[in-house]
Design the sequence.
């Protein structure tokens, strides 16, 4: 799976969570208002509010993870293990293989990338 696909999947999952958050908060408000207006002495609304709250906590953990183990934890752990294995096998890491460019070479490279740019487009 490419990084773009992973990012798209995560963003969709987060959007789904935020949609659920908005819906549950609206439902909690409605239940609380109905309870307050029609039966103010009996707080039956705490039961559905608790259920919706637990649902939100579970959804949050599924979306963002628990104790910093969500999101890209698996990807970072995979990258860390790859670096460790490369170090043990004697391979160089990518950071070690980067060639330094002098300033003139850097200007030429950026000019190549900006051929289709018009300087007036830049702010």
Sequence:
């Amino acid at each position: 799976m490419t990084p773009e696909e992973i990012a798209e999947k995560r963003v969709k999952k987060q959007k789904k969570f935020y949609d659920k958050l908005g819906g549950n908060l609206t439902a909690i408000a409605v239940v609380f208002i109905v309870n307050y207006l029609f039966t103010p002495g009996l707080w039956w609304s705490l039961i559905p509010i608790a259920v919706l709250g637990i649902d939100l906590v579970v959804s949050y953990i599924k979306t963002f993870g628990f104790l910093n183990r969500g999101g890209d934890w698996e990807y970072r752990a995979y990258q860390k293990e790859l670096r460790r294995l490369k170090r043990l096998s004697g391979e160089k890491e990518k950071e070690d293989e980067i060639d330094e460019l002098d300033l003139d070479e850097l200007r030429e490279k950026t000019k190549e990338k900006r051929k289709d740019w018009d300087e007036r487009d830049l702010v």
Observations:
- Residues 3-87 form one domain.
- The chain has five helices and no strands.
- Helices lie at 3-38, 46-64, 73-89, 94-97, 103-113.
- The radius of gyration is 26 Å.
